[in-house]
Give the backbone structure.
Amino acid sequence: MERRFSVRETLETVSDLTPEQLDRYIRAGVVQPVQSQDGPLFREIDIARLSLIVDLAEGYHLNDEAMALVMSLLDQLHGLHGDMRALLDAVAQEPPETRARLSHTIHEVRVILRR
Amino acid sequence: MASDPNDPYKALGLTKSASQADIKKAYRKIAKTDHPDLNPDPAAAERFKAASAAYDLLKDPEQRARYDRGEVDASGQERPQQRHYYRDYAQAGDNPYRQQGGFDDFSDVFSDLFGQRAQSRRGAHSFDMRGPDQRFTLEIDFMTAARGGSTRITMPDGNTLEVKIPEGARDGQTIRLRGKGGPGMGEGGPGDALLTLTVAEDPEWRRDGDDVEITLPITIDEAVLGGKVEVPTIDGPVMVTIPQGASSGRKLRLKGRGIKGPGARRGDQHVVLRIVMPPQIDEDLARFFREWRESHAYDPHRRT
């Protein structure tokens, strides 16, 4: 089963993260731990997200609102990236004629129309 | 040490004389430009990886001094597990942080693919807009899921909320709390809070749909002679008859003791028997079996 981190374990794992900072990010909804009878629990995705947030906060001095915006944009970007890869994988399994037709249509829409 | 290919000072663009503040500043600068979550260039990812390993080694003055004296080397100090970047999780189709607003399950790209673009691109013409739905994940234990119950959760804004868990709740099930989501605009009401349930694994109970299973340890004499033993169920302990000569692994079925499924029918509980030897094999037991073996040996491989 995937590991869950308590608040204390999270603070130990993510270097340079303070308890006040973590509390603020939870309130701002920037990080959304899993709720449980034993209080908030952090998944591995939350730990990776918090490490990135600390890097961003220290590097760019983002306030909590700006952080929420940046993370939402990053989620969209990463998500689209994943979708695109899935789509390309699906297209790669199609027969060559289908791929050629798709490539032709994409060329028309993306390259010719937008020029 | 100067020729060390993993020289952490070099990874940060510094020399040994750098101050602790310099080290932090240099790492932060590299994180700013080369973070793999912000910069897709593989070379940038390499620079970031080297810099973060170096920072891990040098950020603690004591550890840094040990490295400078040659007591630890740079490679030996690398984290045992490689750091996972956020993008590794966020690119997955089920990134919980991406599912806010928009479509329930399909992302934009796939909805377009299925020709839903026309309906989906409704703009916000009006200033009265219903607030966004907010998604949360709620982890509950096996018994709460099986019996139902209520649990308190803390919303991101600090408010606590009482959530009723229905009897027979299953993994992945969503509970909708009307009006507990984000605030609306203008005349629009608030959105809903959507709680996705995760049922935590239980050390004792296993669940397969509406059926549940536990392992019941029994004594060697109960296995031979049979008898009544107490078995935990979702509704509390019940007495169950162990048949004479039960083997380990034998399954007893308690009908209707499982989880309440759709249509209010309950699944079954399976009890898997496991014979446990006494903590010590005393002389009585050993003597009995020595004699018994003389005349009653059997081959468990051939038994049907």
Remarks:
- The longest helix of chain B spans residues 42-58.
- DSSP finds ten helices and eleven strands in chain B.
- Chain B touches chain A through 47 residues (CB under 8 Å).
- The domain at 130-199 of chain B is CATH 2.60.260.20 (HSP40/DNAj peptide-binding domain).
